[in-house]
Amino acid sequence: MSGHRGSVTIDDVARHVGVAKGTVSRVLNNYTDISQATRERILKAVKDLGYQPSATARNLKRGRQDTLGIVIPVGHGNGADPFLSEFIDGIARALDELGIDLLVTTAHSRDHMIETLQRLIARRKVDGFILTRTEVEDPRIAFLSEQGFPFVTHGRSHLPDTHAWFDIDNEKTFADGVRHIYSLGHSRIGFIGGSLELNFALQRRDGYRAGLEALGVPFDPALETIVDLDEEGGLAGAERLLAGNDLPPTALLCVTDALAIGAIQYCRKHGLTVGSDVTIIGYDGLPFGDYLEPPLTTFSQSASEAGSRVARMLIDVLDGKDPKTLKALSEATLIRRASDGAPHKTPETLAEVLRSRLNQQP
Questions:
Q1: Residue of 32 and 189 predicted with greater confidence
Q2: Residue 8: DSSP 8-state
Q3: Tell me, what's the pLDDT at 75?
């Protein structure tokens, strides 16, 4: 029978021993109402035949699907952010090592998000959820907490002590970014951010402002703009700050690499040299930043490693660890390339150059 290993069924075991299928099932599920002699015969047959209970049967027995879920919010540029691709890859790689699947789907609104979570829970599709792009007041966290359904967040919320999370110290990172840009000689420092409903975007905006305050640099609301989190948003943000100011910033601090890429595109389109005319710094540390022209200076957190960490954290939750004790705050690292440097133009000169080039365009 060895040639049939992997395809042996519980019926095969029952026929081999000469007992009912239910008797085999009761032995495999550790019922005690079967005689010791019959139990030993069945267990020997299981071993000899190479019988393996199906994954479905094992999961039903322990109430697990061996599948985790992530529902990605799309719209407002979120779906175009390359960070999410790296993040999901990190989750999938970690789960693959554990023999666990990942179910990925999307939701296009808050209501649709909750409906999707409800449907996946009702159909028992997943054992738990990974939430990303957390909001300051996140309806997903409130819903899953009310349901008592396991989840972990990548990012905090206004309720950071009630659930498991992994996050980066965004506020410190952006205060450090302002300090670094200031040390290069810039005093007009622009900020291109994302929706302040998103917790990371709010934290990074607060870090930018805190960095200015710590250096004694007056805050100018004209140097701050909120855009969609994609390259087009970055391009639009650079246009607002550079072309829309009589005294434009000589440096732009962007909340994601995608926004920084858009800002670089705007500068190149108008003949500005990134790294000298305008300093541009991103955040995410995505590998392709090294291949841009010029290579992008960025704050790095490994998106793949972040995905791996939240996946393993959710497995800990499912294995019974108290979610309130599972919290990790990490720091990003500045990777200097060629898109930052000392200013070669004053804000006044930069404004004159931009006006001249914009006037020359048809």
A1: 189
A2: -
A3: 65
At residue 107, the 3 state secondary structure works out as: strand
pTM of the entire predicted model: 0.79
Read off the DSSP letter of residue 295.
P
Helical spans, DSSP H, in the chain: 10-17, 21-28, 36-49, 55-62, 82-97, 110-122, 139-147, 170-183, 199-215, 231-238, 257-269, 303-318, 347-360
Which residues neighbour 237 within 8 Å (Cβ) at sequence distance 6 or greater? 192, 225, 227, 252, 254, 259, 262, 263
Looking at residue 56, its pLDDT comes to 43
Is residue 8 very low, low, confident or very high in pLDDT (cuts 50, 70, 90)? Answer: confident
Structural tokens at position 254: 């962007």
CA 300 and chain centroid, separation = 13
The residues near 15 (Cβ < 8 Å, ≥ 6 apart) are: none
Query: What is the amino acid identity at position 215?
Result: L
For residues 251 and 181, the answer to whether their CB atoms sit within 8 Å is yes
Q: Under a CB-based contact definition with an 8 Å cutoff, are residues 61 and 94 in contact?
A: no
How many helices, marked H, and strands, marked E, lie in the chain?
13, 12
Report the pLDDT value the prediction gives residue 94, as an integer from 0 to 100: 92
